[in-house]
Amino acid sequence: MTTSSQIPPPGSVPRRLGWTLALVIGLAALAGLCAGPDGWSLGVLTGPDSDQALILHDIRLPRALGTALAGALFGLSGALAQGLFRNPLADPFLLGSASGASLGVVMVLAAPPLLGPAAAAGWLGELGLVGGAFVGALAGVSLTLLLSRGAEHSTRLLLAGVVVGVVLGAVNDLITLMAPDALRGRQAFGLGSTSFFGWTSVALLALSLSLTLPLAWRFARVLDALSLGEDSATSLGLDLPRLRAALVGILALATGAAVAQAGLIAFVGLVCPHLVRRFAHGAHGFVLLASAGMGAALLLVADLAARTLIAPQELPVGVLTAVLGGFYLLGLMHRRGVS
Amino acid sequence: MTAWIQRILVAGLLALSGLSAVQAAEPPKRIVSLLPSLTESVCALGACDRLIATDRWSNWPRSVQALPKVGGLDDAQVERIVALKPDLVLAAESSRAVERLRSLGLTVRTLEARSHGEVRDALQRLAAWLGRPDEAPRLWQHIEADLNAAAARVPAHWRGRTVYFEADDAPYAAGPTSFIGETLGRLGLRNVVSAALGPFPKLNPEFILRAQPDLVMARTRALSAMPRRPGWGRLEALRRRHICSFDEERYDPMVRPGPRMGEAALAVADCLSTLGTP
Amino acid sequence: MIEIRDLHLDLGGRPVLRGISLDLTPGWTVLVGPNGAGKSTLLRAVAGLLSPQGGSLRLDGRPLQQWSAPERARRIAWMAQQSEAVSELGVRDVVMLGRLPHQGLFGSETAQDRHAVEAAMQATECLTHQHRRLGELSGGERQRVLLARALAVEAPIVLLDEPTTHLDPPHQVGLVRLMMNHAHDPVQPRTVVSVLHDLPLALAADRLVVMAAGTIQAVGSPHDPVVREALIDVFAGALRIENVGGRWVALPEITP
After folding, report:
1. What is the mean pLDDT of residues A202-206?
2. pLDDT in tens, B210-243
3. pTM of the entire structure?
């Protein structure tokens, strides 16, 4: 039994984590502003000439903001998915959002060669790659909900998600076969990228986060109750099917927005709740918020590394997060196995 | 008094219109190309000195290899491109880089050609943008001349024979509607694949074995491994060495829809003339 | 008060409850019987977690389906048999979840909530753990926390499915005392229904409901010989019930 002197007073550890995350985000964002294809230069911040000011304002600033926002959305989605399915290995791409988004991208890319130049100017062309990914992600999740006939049973939901992922992936492969031009774009989407964030991207990401974060926070208690078991949660008067559907909707919106702008960046959603729990504990409300913060910090650091490790070339940020995430999970497994 | 003012006004207007006409006609002097075929086209149209950067895959002519490389189409280094202050960026359609660069205020023009006819149109439009509209027909005439010369150089005993051109080792064949397929058609060769199958059909290997093409053409790497594929030892064309193999350097102009297509056709014709009789 | 009339319930196509009629009134009632008798299923049905195929289930005169979920949750608290809790939550947060039926999903903590949580944790002796995580506790400690969660609801009807699992003898006895006090509370007597496998403890209840194969064999106080007979009967004569110093005790009948 631990004595009260060993237990930290409640609230202080989460607060410390919050401040640490804010610090990391601030520093990483600032570093991102100084890092360019030709190396570091603090002069950009202290006394930029007109060219540098342009680059700073038009390129690096929206990139830093967009990366932080996208990372926050990934982190939030991961925490939501793990709470919804009570599974520490759940990631936000479980319900068909990734395969749907990828299919959307491929359809936009394959339209001109397959359907002719008229299609490129038509609504598919209007949608663009970003719009296609977003619509695709939402469509994928909707299909999953349809197949599982609502969110009544989480196992059915998961199974439907797997089926949708496989089927949409197959359709994707088929279209790519017929229009090999789309392959390049599909691969790029799969690797993820933070290099194309402009102010429009930032606005869209901010909009999505401002909608999903408060909503998720309000519904966090459902996740707490769910952690006791489905029957216990029902016995507490919760309408689980409807609440689950609402949470799936929030998950779809957050994941869809992030994936549309940044592609399929791996592991951020999976790893953030684990990292948060390693440092601090709390109810789901705290875990959701902290995961968002952790995601922002993580992606900012990954983006920085992607830009500076082999400058002026850029590593695909998704590859970096996969490698880092993979190593972290390995360490986690090893520790669990040892203990 | 009013006549005076009128004359000044007219003169002023004329001068202004002349100025704007000059400004509108100002061709781009700092060009970034993000597609190898566009790089080659720009140089073929005589504007090579105006290129300031290319994508990492552009490798012809030799001079562009020294230019700064700014990534590929999907990982274009946006900041570097902007810092170079180009007045024209050339790219393929449907790439996120295009949207991003346009939103940053750069002039981005996309061109993608998949057939001989589209190459000709693309060259025309590119020449117009470069301010050298007469270069395009001249270049095209040159290419046509090469194509005709190549067709003439094909030995009579090879005309009308069937050819299998392997685009990838899955195996993907180049059909008659593909770019290279069109070139082979110009040379008087028949494709084992019908046009209905599309530009790059993925084939059942049995189809090729049954079709027994008179000629097999592929990358050197693929051709050296081909006889070891199960059943491919039966291909007459392989046994009699009626093959044309292209190393990496000579393969590029085969499949890049650009100004070197005439060169590619000549290379095929030269290969055929070394093959002896079918 | 719960009125059950001729309840039929199937699980996975198999009939589990075959015509159960029972009144659940204030006091401590224990459901006993062999495995597969349908005890847990009956409890789940009363908690509103399963829909019966036939018969009626009334809470305070109204059919259970007519009660809205939050209303029902304020009147009936239920504790699961197998702890499915995979919780990284802190103990206090877990117990506070018991206040959900009163707070609603978006409500905030009131003084009354805090009082209920404290009282529940004190009754189940887990105040010392309140800042630890559920996952860190031993089986018995976790069981007491989950029990506190059920008590924190402050519902007049408390359904506990095998609450003594993982508990050591002192805590088992403590729990029995708790249930008795809860049921016999002078200010607000409550209906406490538990499923227990531990017969010596069960024999301390006010009322025994002896079940077998989905039907009720006998209902009554342990002092009633009919009930005791039924109990020995459903366990196929594997036990003997003796009176020791005024209390009923169950002994395994080993001699052939």
Report:
1. 96
2. 899 999 999 998 898 888 888 888 899 999 999 9
3. 0.85
Checking DSSP bridges between strand C14-24 and strand C2-11, what pairing results, if any?
Answer: antiparallel
Please report whether residue A12 resides in a domain.
Answer: no
Q: Does C108 touch chain A (CB under 8 A)?
A: no
Task: Report d(CA B81, CA B55) in Å as an integer.
Answer: 10
pLDDT in tens, A272-320: 999 998 888 788 899 999 999 999 999 999 999 988 888 778 888 988 9
Topology at the third CATH level for domain B31-133: Rossmann fold (3.40.50)
Tell me the count of A-C CB pairs closer than 8 A: 87
- Is the residue at A77 inside a domain? yes
Asked if residue A48 belongs to a domain, the reply is no
Q: Count Cβ atoms within 10 A of the Cβ of residue C20 and give its class: 0-12 exposed, 13-18 middle, 19 or more buried.
A: buried
Q: What CATH number is associated with residue C80?
A: 3.40.50.300
Which residue in the set B80, B93, B103 is minimally distant from A198, CB to CB?
Answer: B103
Which residues, in sequence order, are bridge partners of residue B69? Answer: B54
Determine contact: C80 vs chain A, CB below 8 A. Answer: yes
Coil, strand, or helix at residue A49?
coil
Identify the chains in contact with A, defined as 3+ C-beta pairs within 8 A. Answer: B, C
pLDDT along chain B (278 residues), means of 10: 62 50 69 94 94 92 93 86 93 84 92 89 94 93 95 92 89 90 94 89 88 93 88 89 91 89 93 88
ipTM confidence? 0.91
> What's the number of domains chain C is made of?
1
Output the CA torsion sign for B193, B196, B198, B201.
Answer: negative
Residue A201 sits in a domain whose CATH number is 1.10.3470.10
Query: Is residue C72 within 8 angstroms of chain A, CB to CB?
Result: yes
CA closest to B101 among chain A residues:
A196
Q: For tokens 């019908």, what's the residue?
A: B194
- Contact at CB, C100 and A218, closer than 8 angstroms: no
Using CB atoms, pick whichever of C44, C86, C131 lies closest to residue A10: C131
C74 touches chain A (CB under 8 A): yes
Q: Where are the domains of chain B?
A: 31-133, 145-273
Amino acid at A290: A
Cα–Cα separations (whole angstroms), residue B45 to A106, B124, B130: 34, 10, 9
Tell me yes or no: is domain B145-273 CATH 3.40.50.1980. Answer: yes
Give the residue numbers spanning the domain of A218: 54-338
Taking a contact as any Cβ pair under 8 Å apart, which residues of chain A between 235 and 264 contact chain C? 235-239, 243
Q: Do the chains A and B touch each other, judged by at least 3 C-beta pairs below 8 angstroms? A: yes
Dihedral sign, CA of C150, C154, C155, C157?
positive
Q: Which residues of B touch A313 (CB under 8 A)?
A: 71, 77
Q: What is the DSSP string of B36-97?
A: HHHHHHHHHTT-GGGEEEE-TT---SGGGGGSPB---SSS--HHHHHHH--SEEEE-SS-HH
Q: Do C69 and A237 touch (CB under 8 A)?
A: yes
Half-sphere exposure of A233 (CA within 13 A, CB side): 22
Range of the domain at C215: 2-252
Across the interface, of A230, A237, A239, the residue whose CB is closest to C101 is A237
Q: How many domains does chain A have?
A: 1
pLDDT score for B13: 56
The answer to the question of residue A26 being in a domain is no
Q: What value does the CA radius of gyration of chain A take, rounded to a whole number of Å?
A: 21
Task: Tell me: pLDDT of C221 over 60.
Answer: yes
Contact residues on chain C for A231, CB-CB shorter than 8 A: 44, 49, 78, 80, 84
